[in-house]
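[09:14] KT: can someone run the structure on this one? pasting the chain below
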Amino acid sequence: MSGRVLSFEPPASRNGSFLALELLPGRVQGALIDPAGRFRARREARFDPSAPRVKILAEVDRVATGLARSSRLGGCVISAGGVLDTAHGTMVQVVDMPSLEGCAIAEHLHTVVGAPTLLEHRARLQVQGDHYFGAGQGEETFASVATGSTLGVGILYQGMILAPDGGRSGAHMTVAAGQITCSCGKRGCWRTIATTAWLREQGRPLEIPDQDLAGWEKRATSDPRAAAVVSEYARNIAVGLANIQQLCMPGLFILHGEAAQASDGFRATILETLRDLSRTGGETEPRLVTTSLGEDDSTLLGGVALLLHRGLPSIG
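[09:31] RB: done, structure tokens below
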């Protein structure tokens, strides 16, 4: 498995902006970002993830063109989950947006915005964003963790992305064989027990209406049932991280999303469980940090890092 060396020096002479887009089930967001990582403009649109391809692409185009018309672009990058053919810019398997499977989205966007366009997995871009603009600056090895409605881990190992091009981000690793059926068709994926959707499922039999972790944590201060669910949720997140620690020993885990915004006690449960399950010790003893960058901002900034690293034509 080959990595991708991450190194660039943003040229001081470079002007203009890059267009970074992130495609999630039901939402597309984009930003114009300069080579120094400064956000110049943002746009967002929502859609039905089960909609036909033409309707989803119409929303992607609306965000892209709304941003592109205000700047001469040096390049465009779009991130997504699932299985991607990054070499050809094609979405191969997207279980949450099935109409996009087989879509040559990079070529489509190249035509729409008139700039060189790359497709990359969002977990890979998130770790790049952390490395160049966030809490991973100066680190050669760490894992960047997305939590909440989405789940995934990008790994930087000795300065290289440790994942196959377009590969998965760990959400579908099997951690509970024979248990809950995942949207991918398998049973027991990490994703089935460690996302906000799992919390909502736990709330139904308990008649607890809270939709996110913040609500659950607030309720947990006075409801032992909610406290037990919150604790189990933290341990569920740790199970997947422990597998990654055992295999790759990143040591440092940068948290994004719900886990980053949760209480110190929630993260302490993750860390305690992670250390108990992995027990690697030494310099790679697991530690957790949060970041000042938002989860989506890290992904968008990672797109800028990728474009600069690829050496696309300079912006005039």
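[09:33] KT: thanks! The first strand starts at residue 17 and ends at 24.
[09:34] RB: yep, looked fine to me
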